[in-house]
Design goal:
By secondary structure, this protein is α+β, with helices and mostly antiparallel strands. It has twelve helices and 28 strands. A hairpin with a 2-residue loop joins strand 2 and strand 3. The longest helix is centred in the middle third of the chain and has 14 residues. The chain is elongated, with a radius of gyration of 31 Å.
Length: 525
């Protein structure tokens, strides 16, 4: 039975003051034991949310937009791209680029989804699909927009190489709208960094400095400032998601992953810590849509600092050169060589006349340390050697024939982008042949036509050899670093490895113009 003499619960909840609410509840017959909890104002102490306003106010004058013009013949703007490496579409990567192979797994047919490509930005400025420029191949035209930041008060600007690489004229736009012409001082494709210089001797620019990124931890707050989609100064915030990311863009990959919103146009812009120091330079995003999905990659400050210094000084970066082709050491390879841990870089072959060859480094050696510092993997070796200058003498520790030894190498000057690259693991195979031998390993061999090594004539598709990428038509050069010319010689090497307590044998295999090592189990049959 309803009591119309008392206020309803709806009336009670509309009461605007806590004290008034308690009074109404008492007059409404609500049990007294629950009223005292409303007798005083309710307060909640919330954790202090971080504000980035002070950081943004301090660093914004140092962050710029970079506009690039080119007199090159316009390229076709057909199609679009789902993935962007610092503003470069999927279709702009070489066919054998690791990122392209990776993106193809996720991007649908050809990795393409029309909207959101930098090509569309070009089309908007140059007419439909660039038709306005078809008869004017040497006219300056916009080709890219990116971000950058002043690193010195006299006008040096850091940005990405891919932002400026196709340009012939450059304009820096400051956060107050001032436009200044700039010239290219130098660029480095291996780390995707470039330096511009604004010629303005009558003024001093607000600039920022690099942080000690060794102190950056996963979970730290970061702030990205840049020029996404050509909008001008834009600020986004997030955290460091991961360290040491390798995305297959080059031999020196060591990216910081952040979840701050980074989009096309942010390339070359800085990511700051809460002290206003640059912890990384935004260069790549992973995105199935063309926009931010919370996965962005920044070049760490430790890498950028040395490269930028070299570009400012000489317009180029001088790197040490060892001159060996290398591949990672996995657990199978470590077992086959008697290494306790799968660390170091396995030498596939020293280049003819290289510093490494002259010092006595041989194929099958594992480089385990440089100047006493342990080498984690092949990419770690590439970065370590590059950090030394040409003509530097370094002590290289090797694992050879089951024991350690050292050689001293006088490094050369890295001549081109093909030096010290990590070898592909699965080259294409020539046409098969037939023979039955070494059945316990699942392979058959025959003497090679050139008299060097043994041709693989058959591979059991269910064998460990097939699982590790060995293919018919490839050539076995050595087993456990011993040259072989017959199946019997392979058998002798394998038998000796078993006596030494090894569970795997290391096969050096050549095919499709490359050489690599494959570890096969030998503890059966």
């Amino acid at each position: 039975m309803r009591n119309f003499g008392r206020p309803s619960l709806k009336t009670v909840l509309k009461t605007t003051t806590v004290a008034g609410l308690a009074a109404v509840m008492l007059s409404s017959g609500i049990p007294a034991q629950i009223v005292p909890s409303f007798a005083a104002p309710v307060t909640v102490t919330a954790p202090q949310a971080p504000s980035f306003a002070d950081v943004v106010s301090a660093v914004s004058p140092a962050v710029v937009s970079v506009r690039v013009q080119s007199d090159a013949t316009p390229a076709s703007d057909e199609g679009g791209s789902s993935f962007n490496f610092g503003g470069r579409g999927f279709d702009q990567l070489p066919d054998d680029h690791p990122l392209k192979r990776f993106f193809r797994e996720f991007g649908g047919q050809n990795g393409q989804q029309g909207p959101g490509d930098r090509n569309q930005d070009r089309a908007d400025r140059n007419g439909p699909r660039g038709r306005d420029n078809q008869n004017r191949p040497h006219r300056l035209r916009p080709t890219a927009q990116g971000s950058g930041f002043f690193i010195s008060e006299d006008g040096y600007v850091v940005t990405n190489n891919h932002v400026v690489s196709d340009g012939s004229a450059y304009t820096v736009v400051m956060n107050d709208g001032t436009e200044l012409e700039a010239k290219l001082i130098g660029k480095d494709s291996r780390t995707d960094l470039a330096v511009l210089k604004v010629d303005a001797t009558s003024r001093k620019f607000t600039y920022v400095s690099f942080a000690d990124d060794s102190k950056v931890r996963v979970g730290d707050w970061v702030v990205a400032v840049g020029n996404p989609f050509g909008l001008g100064g834009t600020v986004t915030a997030g955290i460091v998601s991961a360290r040491g990311r390798d995305i297959g863009s080059g031999p020196y990959d060591d990216y910081i992953q952040v979840d701050a919103a980074v989009n096309r146009g942010n390339s070359g812009g800085p990511t700051f810590n809460l002290s206003g120091e640059v912890v990384g330079i935004n260069t790549a995003i992973f995105s199935p849509s063309g926009g931010n999905v919370g996965i962005a990659f920044a070049i760490p400050a430790s890498t950028a600092k040395d490269v930028v210094a070299g570009l400012m000084k000489d317009g180029k970066v001088a790197r040490g050169w060892l001159g060996v082709q290398i591949q990672p050491v996995n657990q199978d390879i470590a077992d086959s060589l008697g290494l306790k841990e799968p660390n170091g870089a396995l030498v596939v072959a020293p280049q003819e006349g290289s510093p490494g060859q002259k010092a006595g480094i041989k194929e099958g050696d594992v480089i385990t340390a440089v100047n006493g510092q342990s080498i984690k993997d092949a990419r770690d070796l590439s970065r370590r050697i590059a950090n030394f200058g040409p003509n530097a003498k370094v002590d290289v520790a090797l694992w050879r024939d089951g024991k350690s030894q050292n050689v001293t190498v006088t490094l050369g000057n890295l001549p081109n982008d093909d030096t010290a690259k990590v070898e592909p693991q699965e080259p294409e195979a020539p046409a098969p042949s037939s023979d039955k031998a070494l059945a316990s390993l699942g392979i058959a061999v025959a003497p090679a036509g050139d008299g060097s090594g043994l041709s693989v004539t058959d591979v059991d598709p269910d064998s460990e050899a097939a699982a590790r990428g060995l293919k018919t038509g490839e050539k076995i050069i050595s087993v456990n670093n011993r040259k072989v010319a017959s199946a019997a010689e392979i058998g002798k090497v394998i038998e000796q490895a078993r006596k030494d307590g090894r569970t795997r044998a290391l096969f050096q295999v050549e095919g499709n113009g490359t050489s690599r090592f494959v570890a096969l189990p030998i503890n059966e049959g």
